[in-house]
Amino acid sequence: MYSLNFTREWDSALFEFTKSLKERLGNNLVMIIGLDENEKVYDSNVLIVVRSKTDDVIMSIADVALDVNSKYNCSINFYVCTEKDVEIIDAFSHSGKYDDCEKSFNEFKNRVLKISGVIDVQRTEGYDSNVLIVVRSKTDDVIMSIADVALDVNSKYNCSINFHVVQNG
């Protein structure tokens, strides 16, 4: 999803930063990942991915960041890497997702444990699911109650609960 709200200074700053970098770096610019202003990965809120990372490229990026930061009441703190730095790109790409998944699972678990007949709720990776639910009796009513909770929780977070139900014993 691409979403910029130009009533927010941060979004306007990111837009200008992106536009200026594209003009300066041309085809050397591969990707920009902008986090929320106060969200940080490696003490940075913007990742710039380039094909070739040289001192001149870094100086050009720094010049653009200084110019944009002087115009807006926010601060672009950038990190530069190449497209081969997959771990860094993944860290920025999934920066907020872990927290969302943690919150999502905790809410789901707390709500599902209140359903009559549910014994346990655990994280898992199997059966194309990420949550294992143990029940006393695997009835349609219990499964539908769990599904209702999953739909509600999934609508709130940037992380999906995919559950698998097993009967105890």
Describe this structure as you would to a colleague.
The chain is an alpha/beta fold and 169 residues long. The protein folds into two domains: 9-93, Beta Polymerase, domain 2; 98-167, ANL, C-terminal domain (GMP Synthetase, Chain A, domain 3), CATH 3.30.300.30. Helix content is 44%, strand content 22%. It has a three-stranded mixed β-sheet with strand order 1-2-3, sandwiched between helices. The radius of gyration is 22 Å and the shape is elongated. The model has no long low-confidence stretch (mean pLDDT 91).
Topology, element by element:
Layout: H1 9-25, E1 29-34, E2 46-50, H2 55-71, E3 78-82, H3 86-93, H4 97-112, E4 118-126, E5 129-135, H5 140-156, E6 163-167
Parallel strand pairs: 2-3, 5-6
Antiparallel strand pairs: 1-2, 4-5
Helix pairs in contact: 1-2, 4-5
Helix content: 40-55%
Structurally, the number of domains stands at 2
CATH architecture of the largest domain: 2-Layer Sandwich
* Amino-to-carboxy terminus distance: 44 Å
CATH class of the largest domain: Alpha Beta
Percent range for β-strand residues: 15-25%
The biggest sheet amounts to: 3 strands, mixed
In short:
The protein folds into 2 domains: 9-93, Beta Polymerase, domain 2, CATH 3.30.460; 98-167, ANL, C-terminal domain (GMP Synthetase, Chain A, domain 3, 2-Layer Sandwich).
Key structural traits:
169 residues, alpha/beta, Beta Polymerase, domain 2, GMP Synthetase, Chain A, domain 3, 2 domains, three-stranded mixed beta sheet, 5 helices, elongated
